[in-house]
Every structure is written in C-alpha cells, then in structure tokens.
Amino acid sequence: MSTTQPAVAPKAVPVPSSVADRSRKAKKALTSPWASTLAVVIAVIWTVPTFGLLVTSFRPELDIRRSGWWTVFGDAFAGEGVFSLRNYESALFDSSTNLIDYFVNSFVITLPAVFIPISVALLAAYAFAWIDFKGRDFLFVAVFALQIVPIQITLIPLLSAYVDTGINGTFWPIWLSHSMFALPLAIFLLHNFMKDIPASLVEAARVDGAGHVKIFFQVMLPLLTPAIAAFGIFQFLWVWNDLLVALVMGGTNTFPLTVRVAEMAGSRGGDWHVLSAGAFISMIVPLIVFLALQRYFVRGLLAGSVKG
Amino acid sequence: MTIRMASRRRAAALAATGASLALILTACADTGDGGDGGGGDGGGEAASFEIDCAPYEEFGDLEGTSVSVYTTIVEPESVTQTASYEPFEECTGVTVEYEASREMEAQLPVRVQAGNPPDIAILPQPGLLNTLVTQYDAVLPAPEQVEANVDEFWSEDWKEYGTVDGTFYAAPLGSNVKSYVWYSPSMFEEAGYEVPETWDDMMALTEEIAASGAIPWCAGVESGDATGWPGTDWIEDVVLRTAGPEVYDQWYTHEIPFNDPQIVDAFDTAGEILKNPDYVNGGLGGVDSIATAPWTDAGFPILEGSCWMHRAANFYQTQWPEGTEVAPDGDVYAFYLPSQSTDERPTLVAGEFIGAFTDRPEVQAFQTYLSSSDWANAKAAATPAGGWVSANNGLDPELLATEFDRLSAEILADPATVARFDASDLMPSEVGTGSFWAGITEWFASDASSQEVTDDIENSWPTN
C-alpha cells in the first residue's frame, strides 16, 4: 500500500519505469505467436457450439431433425434454400401468452434483484472495511462462509417462510432470494475493493470533518464505480439466466423468460427444434448488457479480487 | 489507444443491438404466412359444449371462487385442456387458474413440503401419487361424488391405479394407448403387405421385408433426462404378450424378481427385432443408434421410405411433422401391436390422475367435473386436431376428432382388450424412472445381454 512506502524514496524515479517495464514484459509474453494461436484456438472451440446453435435456429424443422447444422454449408453451395425464420416465429408468437409479458417479468425481476444486493453489500462492505468494531473479522469470515451454502438446500425452508409471511405469489420472494444468494460474494468483492483504497484518503476526509456518511458517498462511491458496475453485470447475467429460483419461488404471474424457454419444447419434448431460437431471443438482452459494459466487467473484477 | 478501443467496442455493441433488433423485426414481419404451431396439436378453438349444470349445484354458490391446477401439460396441448374447463366455469362461475410446467413432477413435492400446494394437480403417473400419499401425506381422499363418477365411468382397473393402500385418491383423466405400430399404408399397399394379425405374422412380415433388402423397423429411446423410457414400453408390451398379464402384475409388484427367466425371455423376444442388425434401425443407423435417436423423430424414416414399422404410443400422432396425414389411407397410420392369438388383446396403457390437496367446495366440484363423462366429451369437442383419448366409458367416440383417436377409444372399450398400466410408472421410482431406463439404454448402446441388464435392474430394486 502506498502509505507504507518510505517517504524518502526519490519521487517519480523507479515507480513509473518499473510499471512500464512490467507492462512491456507482459505485453511481450502475451503477444508471442504461441499465446496468440492458443487464444484463437480456445476462442474458436468456445464459440463453435454457440455458432452451431445460431445456425440451427435458422434451419427448418425437418432439416434440424435430419442432419447436423454443419451440413448447411454444403447445401448452401449446392444452391438449396436452407434458412427460415419459422423457428423464431414459433418461439415469439405460438404461445397464448405474449412473449413480451415474459420479457417484462424478466426485467421486473432482474432490476431489483441487482439493485438490492448491491446497495446492502456496499453498506456492509464499508462497515467491514472502515469501521472498527468488535468481532469484525469473525463476522466477515462468517458472512463469506455463507457462500459455500448451496442454494438448493435453502429452497424448501425459504419457500415455507415466504408462504408463512404471506408474500408468496408476488415478486418479493424472487427478489429477496436472489439478494440473499448474491450478498456473500458481493460483500466480499466490494470489501476487498474498498480495502485497497488508500487509508490516507479516508483519513484526510476525516480530518476535514467528514463523517462516515459523507466519506461513503463522496470518497468511496466515485472510486467504486468500476467494482459496482462489474458486480452489477455479474448479478444481472446471473439473475436474467436463472431458472431455478424463478421456478421454485415464482408463480404464473411472475415467470420470466427462462421459464417460458424451458416450456417451449412442449409437454413431451417434441418441439425441441424451437429451443435454439428461444435461446437466442432470451440471449439478446444479456448480450447487449455485456457488450456495452464489458470493459467495467474485466477491470472491476480484477480490481476487487486480485490484490496487486 | 484506449479511446479508440473503447469506441470500437461501443460500435460492436451497437452493431449487436442493431442486429438483434433487425432479427426481431424480420421475425415480426414474417408472421403473415405462418399458419399455426409446430406440434400439430395446437390451435384448439374453444368449441362451446353444453353440459348439465345440476351435479354442481349441491356444492353451493361457487360464483367468484377460483381453483388452481398444476400440471405437466404445457402449450400447445394446454390450450385444449383449458378450453375443456370452460363449460364448468360457465356453470358455476368458478375461475380455473391453470399452471403448467415440464418440471412439475420435481416442483410439486417442493411446494407440498413448503406448505404451498396447488388445489389440484394432474399427476402424470400413479408412482407420483404414491409418493405424495406415503411420504408427504398430502393428497386428500376423493370426495364421494368423484368416487361415484369413477365407479360409473371407469373400469375397476383404472380406479385401482388411483388407489393407495385401499383408499381411493385420484380419478383418472386422459388415457394413452401404447401398443401401436406405426406404418405407411401406401408403402404396405404398393409392396402388397398385409397388416399382421398375430405376433408370428408380424415376425414373418419382418423377415419378408428384410429379405427384400430393406430394414423393417426403426426405434429411438433418447428423451433427455428420461432417456430409455420408449424402450421400457417395448419390453412391457412384449412381457404382456410372451408371459401374460398375470406375470406382468407379479413383475411390477416384485412378487417375481426382475430377472425372472420369463422376463429375460421377453427381453430376448424384443431383442429378436431390436437387436438384429438386419431388422433395425431403418434410416437411422445400427442397433446402437436406437440409444441415441430421439424418440420424437425415430419414426420419421417411415415418411422417407427407409423404415417400415415403428412401435410408439397413440400420442406419437402429434409428433409427425406438420402436414403429415394420419389416416388409414394417409401418409401414416398405426395398427395394434399383435399378440400371440387374436382372441386376447393385451394392451399397454397409461394416463393422468387428478389429485386434490384442498377440500373447498369449489375444488370438489371441479374434481367431480373432471371425473365425469361431461368433461371427457367437452375435452374431445375442444380438441379439433386430435391426439387425445380417454378410457372414460361415457366418452362419445363420435366427438373424437380423428379416425385414429376413435381407433384408440375402440381398443380401450373393447372387451377383448386386457389393459395393463405402464409398469415403469408403477414400479418404485429407483427402478421405474431410474435403473430400468438406464438398463434399456445400456442394452442398446453397449450391447449388454438381457441377463446382465435384468440382473442389474433387479439389484437396484429397493429392499424395503
């Protein structure tokens, strides 16, 4: 940490050059042809199934059932018409409930389920990082230890608690459950990030007469933006793609898109050819969110978890 | 540098957004010429069907109440299911809240344990009823009106499937007939083949087709996490034919072990077809391809002429691709899987049952409606595309939509029919939805012998 550096160290001489040195070394190591080849190979291997899914989603039902998606290239050269939007049509319009309702539910579930844990975790992380109280370390370890509780074993006790309190059937069980499941990791990440903020900053603010509230809002929050964004994306993707919690805690009025996609194959699984299209429709929003915010994602995660 | 990178990324994000928007728009624009759903079972126009409201008057004034139903029947079949409730809703003013999930069998016990059960659940197999009664003590015994209906409209056997330890809980709802062989009438006619009347005829026909150089049978047992079940149906059908219904009853109740010589013999008899590379797997590959071919598509080679016969249940009717004509003179049709003689017709059946978790008057009234012949007829009238049948003897076959459904109803009503419920649905779940499925898959995939497979399944039978 910066405060531990001896004040006598000559200013501005070794630090930038060593940083530049290191980054040059890292750049050299990462841009070697082997590393590049490996990266490309991994990227291709990871992308091929998704690409196959995309191709499949545009193929007619019988083609999907009869042959693999890779055969389209041969067929396309032979000049046969092999693509259709029929699967997207089925996925979007063949349900008696409009798909828009499920989209809306997905948003209604996701936004509070991201907002609530981040707000609570920020306050908790600040307390764990900058307020000295008895049993702080023990409590912090205890909170993070909750991360190892598998959410599956909490489902039935939680659901019966919701039924007892009478909030079952609303969105509250889903929001609360997602918040609970997210909090341990959120507190841990944000705590680590806050700890990395130089103590001198906080002390300076305190000398100037700022209390905890002022320090939190005016010193911490602006510095925390990347970490908050990173965890926000993380939680957004998790909640948006969640099926288990939505299915167990939810009801007909609260089902999100994932539940509808899971039903698309039909009672006996006969309509599975629609699934690829359904998957891509439900992927659109997370894809946009991820692409738009991905630089925060990488920067923030590194900042919070790895101490330099 | 960073700025340029960032703006390039933003451009990529924008491009992705634009692409996906374009996708939605084109999909929207394309709906005009679409036609109806993919399954072939959809598009249920709610045909208004008149019923007698008198039986529900004794439950008092139910106006404004509601009943929740939880089921595995999702779209498109759910459309005709909910349409069949409308006459009851009109009579009583009750609103039926319908919730369907493919995960219902796993979710229902969770909801029951959390104290949040639905009013009524449509249970797809008696095994689940058994679990709910014996482990959670959750299902309520059927009210007397329901029992009276079942005594009137259903056979003793069907009532027995809804009974646990002597108490009658669940009235049967729909029924499936599983002992069918799908074939192409035109292919048979061109080749001069007759629909076989006995098992020996069928084997002779199989031999004849194979001698002509074609592959007579196709099969597939892949079904996601339930892979293997279509194969268990095959075996059950053969057990009914080679060992007889009495042995069948002893088999699923475990009075005889799973690896009893008669059962091994049935495996071998089925294996004469299913494990003979000359007889399977038309249009799909070798014997091992049975394990990996999706059951939903395994009969499709018949349409291409590369397979002649495919054993599958009546609900396979709705699996055929859009535009396939199911009729005695159409693209495909099915004949009864023959037995040794024509006098006795052992038939494998399955069905759903109605379990109730609450006993409010409106719930009991709805239960009564579902167990009546009025519901069966309303459901038949509400299912114009067909693919549904019931063993309810008050069902008017004329209301059934397709000739094939009437054939199924005829088989269910035929006195020569000896109906037996799908054994894997009646066995303990460790076997019925576990080792039996896995064993069958092994039997095909790694060519395990009948003895090995039955030994393994016997060892997995729960001890108490």
UniProtKB/TrEMBL annotation, chain A:
Residues 103-293 form the ABC transmembrane type-1 domain. Its main location: membrane. This is Alpha-glucoside transport system permease protein. It comes from Promicromonospora thailandica. It is found in: Cell membrane. InterPro entries: MetI-like, MetI-like_sf. Pfam families: BPD_transp_1. It comes from the Bacteria.
Automatic annotation (TrEMBL), chain B:
Keywords: Signal, Transport. InterPro entries: Bact_solute-bd_prot1, SBP. It comes from the Bacteria. Residues 1-29 form the signal peptide. Pfam families: SBP_bac_8. Belongs to the bacterial solute-binding protein 1 family. This is Alpha-glucoside transport system substrate-binding protein.
